[in-house]
Amino acid sequence: MNKKCGFFTTVLFCILFVVAFTYREDIVNFVMSSAIQNKQVTLPNEEVNLNDFEFGFVKETDDFHVNNKQDILNVIYTVLNHGLTDLTFYCDKDYKNCQNDLSDISNDQTLLSTINNFVSPYNSYEKIYFKITSYGEVNMAIDKLYSDKEKSNIEDEIKEFEEANIKGSMNTRDKIKAFHDYLINNSVYDKARADAIEKGDDHSTNNSHKATGPLIDGIALCSGYSDAMKIYLDKLNIPNYKISNSNHIWNLVYLDGQWLHLDLTWDDPVTTDGSNILLHKFFLISTDELHKLDATGHNFNIKYYPETQNS
To answer: Which terminus of the chain has fewer Cβ atoms in its 10 Å neighbourhood, N or C?
Structure first.
């Protein structure tokens, strides 16, 4: 009797071992995916350059167990908005398409760079990485666009500008106009680099694509102008973000109960004789006014920027 029990126990053990070995990955994934559902994710208490405005396309979230594609976008926005360099979040066990959706997002540079438009330039990414395990754990890592030294230099320049140009009697529109004019009067559009980018032959190492370009180096691309303006608008605590298409980027500002467009690049035109011209054609105008002036260069995806329909 004992020999029979021993034989059947051995056979049963062998069967269980074969099953466990054959389905080992599925078992591990099941155990791990079950375990991560109870993992809590909390953001650090320190909030660096946090934007606390509510936008239509992406929103702050405190739920880091995602259930759909929009949840992933909201997590990415939240991580960037809080100035973090890494975070781990999790796919819900019933979210079967999580890996495919994450792959689609990570390969869509237009979509990812759009999320950059809603956060402080100081928190925006230069490169962003995602790694997902088979059991739904997602590791997110970020290389920041601006160094601490660059941020310090920008803050010093803006402080110097304010001390020389901002008076206590000025209203918000006047302050924005003063900064708009200051940037244009003290910088030129980097046409050589813009032409190189268009040809796919950009080897420049200057900072015209960042706020340091117009503020410190006196040369700017549209991204440099818009970053500098967003940093200043954030200082004024005005709801705003950058708005872009495949070829251009500018600012959208909420002022006096209306969302208005602000484009320093087009207010600083390139001239044939090299003279520096300051315009205000694209200074705080409605969407209708913008499209009457230029419907092609300022086209954009309404899905990303629903606020433009209220201007």
So the answer is: N
